[in-house]
Write a structure and sequence with these properties.
binds adenosine-5'-diphosphate; cell membrane; alpha/beta; ABC transporter related protein
């Protein structure tokens, strides 16, 4: 079953720019789908529409089989991970990871439990009392992942989550994200302009160009395409 279904979606901005044209794409349950293409091809727009941060001009968007066109982000049961992690600098790692749950009035003990579980998965247990400024880039990236994990969402949406890291760390985190995603089995739509990242990370890769979908294939199929 498809967890995320984008059906004939078009996005026209108020200034007339058509950023996405008649996009149809299904992300299967547990699948890691990469949306790849050059800058300006509409990747962020597509992701923001799925997240509910940008209204859809035409078409339908379903998450978990439910039509969500008119649902606000909070009611879509998805978690976003951005390139600028947007961690709260004055809060500890523990508070950063649990914040969304606290706001959602999840009881304190349950928040602590879920944060600790995520910290174990992400190897952050030793750092729960630190602030983001006291962490390495890779650790900060993991905290950003942790904030998404604790909510146990139907899907992760990632917008160039590694683009602020240096080349070596980027390769390392790429491997970590792939392992984590497979371990958790959470449906993921991952945006990048980096073809290597797309080919090494994705179960399938959707190639976007000028707002239009060109191809959806596994990395192996793409390698075989002349
Ligand atoms: P990408 O993420 O692939 O770099 P974007 O989704 O950011 O692409 O942008 C796709 C196209 O839509 C670009 O031509 C961009 O200039 C345009 N665009 C993005 N946001 C807006 C906006 N708020 N208003 C008008 N045009 C926009
Ligand atoms: P990215 O390439 O990472 O998506 P951009 O620098 O293209 O980021 O866009 C940053 C912000 O500016 C986004 O919120 C986007 O909606 C907005 N934006 C991008 N292009 C335009 C545009 N042509 N007109 C108005 N806003 C835009």
């Amino acid at each position: 079953m498809a967890e995320i279904e984008i059906r004939g979606v078009t996005k026209r901005y108020p200034d007339g720019t058509v950023a996405i044209r008649d996009l149809s794409l299904e992300v299967g349950a547990g699948e890691l789908m990469i949306l790849v293409g050059p800058s300006g091809c509409g990747k962020s727009t597509a992701l923001r529409m799925v997240a509910g941060l940008e209204p859809i001009t035409e078409g339908e968007l379903l998450i978990g089989g439910q039509l969500v066109n008119d649902r606000p982000p909070k009611e879509r049961d998805i978690a976003m991970v951005f390139q600028n992690y947007a961690l709260y600098p004055h809060m500890t790692v523990e508070r950063n990871m649990g914040f969304a749950l606290t706001v959602a009035k999840v009881p304190k003990a349950a928040v602590a439990e879920r944060v600790l579980e995520a910290a174990r998965i992400l190897d952050l247990e030793e750092h729960l009392g630190r602030r983001p400024g006291q962490l390495s880039g890779g650790q900060r990236q993991r905290v950003a992942m942790g904030r998404a994990i604790v909510r146990d969402p139907k899907a992760f949406l990632m917008d160039e989550p590694l683009s602020n890291l240096d080349a070596k760390l980027r390769v390392q985190m790429r491997v970590e994200i792939a392992q984590l995603q497979r371990r958790l089995g959470t449906t993921t739509l991952y945006v990048t302009h980096d073809q290597t990242e797309a080919m090494t990370l994705g179960d399938r890769v959707a190639v976007l160009r000028g707002g239009e979908l060109q191809q959806v294939a596994t990395p192996a199929q793409l390698y075989d395409t002349p």
